[in-house]
Recover the amino acids of this structure.
């Protein structure tokens, strides 16, 4: 922390102006931050907006350090860019990345009124800041004599100790609130592994199968999902092809595959491209088998 | 350059954040606008702390950070639960009270 504090020329001159190095730093970082903020305002995609806010947050950390607040600079990086913005990105991914804005105006002319209001706010606040008559700047050399974190800690644990305790309560409340808000009531009973096993055993007589269905396409040469597996006697197992393909009639038989692979013909025109009926009929047989697990 | 430049930057960031809240419909982006406003207020706090040679401003900025973190947690939880029930993150669509 000391190294950070000494690396930045953060001493105020007697006239209340900042050093040349800090001026350069400010004029490099401030435009970047404004561009980042405008990115938030204008970016179509929410992820771009979030990333431009990250730029602003990192810029603020630089400025805090320049403003003789290295503790806050570090806290800014950890709390905002590290925790808050990552939480934002996380929720963006959860909600859907392309959840971009609808550009339909629900309230008529709301956008222009908003722009007007923002311009007015800029005018008023900027006017106040520029016009205000303040005593000349003091600087934090005296207050930061024992390094900035120590000075801040002295204040937090003496004058602001009650507020500090309250923030602890606030954080716990927020965590509990987030838990309750995102908690989802279970609508059906939770089915554990043992109950699943018991169910399979109970329905054994009906399905005649204890194991999972065999995987499709276990030919030496072919592993497509629409080719059935062969049992030890060389017969195709219909249940190994996904149910959807069987119902659609897109299942391929053994001869189709073998002949085409050997002769080397291209493989258009499969068995029954547009005949769902025979496929559906085929399904009729092993329908009982697939009752347990569907693909 | 005097410290006023920092204040002007804080004002600009605050205004952009406010405009974001007013203009954007995506609840998450509007929420980021709120964060931007909080941060610009923090910048003003830190600047005034240096101006007056008093660390209280930095302590207040620290508390603002903590409160903002708590607020983000709860706000995003609300957005997620709204998205779960209504499948949308647009602030325009949450108008159940109107009907």
């Amino acid at each position: 922390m000391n190294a950070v504090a000494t690396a930045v020329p953060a001493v105020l001159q007697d006239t209340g102006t900042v050093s040349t190095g800090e001026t350069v730093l400010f004029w490099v970082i401030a435009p970047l931050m404004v561009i980042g903020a405008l990115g938030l305002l204008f970016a179509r995609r929410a992820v771009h907006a979030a990333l431009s806010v990250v730029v602003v947050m990192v810029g603020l950390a630089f400025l805090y350090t320049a403003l003789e607040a290295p503790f806050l600079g570090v806290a800014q990086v950890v709390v905002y860019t590290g925790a808050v913005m990552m939480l934002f990105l996380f929720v963006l991914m959860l909600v859907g990345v392309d959840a971009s804005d609808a550009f339909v105006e629900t309230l008529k002319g709301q956008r222009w009124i908003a722009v007007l209001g923002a311009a007015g706010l800029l005018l008023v606040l900027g006017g106040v800041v520029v016009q205000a008559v303040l005593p000349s700047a003091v600087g934090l050399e005296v207050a930061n004599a024992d390094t900035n974190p120590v000075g801040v800690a002295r204040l937090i644990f003496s004058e602001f100790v009650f507020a500090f305790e309250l923030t602890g309560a606030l954080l716990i409340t927020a965590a509990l609130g987030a838990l309750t808000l995102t908690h989802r009531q279970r609508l059906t009973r939770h089915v554990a592994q043992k109950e699943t096993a018991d169910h399979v055993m109970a329905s054994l007589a009906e399905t005649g199968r204890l194991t999972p269905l065999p995987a499709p396409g276990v030919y030496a040469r072919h592993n497509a999902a629409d080719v059935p597996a062969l049992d030890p006697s060389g017969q195709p197992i219909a249940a190994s092809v996904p149910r959807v393909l069987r119902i659609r009639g897109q299942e391929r038989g053994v001869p189709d595959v073998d002949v085409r692979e050997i002769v080397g013909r291209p493989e258009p025109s499969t068995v029954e491209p547009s005949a769902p009926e025979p496929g559906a009929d085929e399904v009729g047989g092993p329908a009982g088998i697939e009752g347990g697990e569907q693909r | 350059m005097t410290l006023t430049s920092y204040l002007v930057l804080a004002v600009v960031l605050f205004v952009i954040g406010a405009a974001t809240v007013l203009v954007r419909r995506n609840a998450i982006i509007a929420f980021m606008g709120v964060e931007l406003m909080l941060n610009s207020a923090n910048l003003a706090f830190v600047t005034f702390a240096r101006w007056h040679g008093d660390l209280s401003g930095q302590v207040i900025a620290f508390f603002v950070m903590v409160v903002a973190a708590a607020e983000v947690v709860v706000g995003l939880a609300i957005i997620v639960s709204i998205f779960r029930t209504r499948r949308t993150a647009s602030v325009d669509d949450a108008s159940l009270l109107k009907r």
Q: What stands out?
A: Chain B touches chain A through 71 residues (CB under 8 Å). The radius of gyration of chain B is 17 Å.
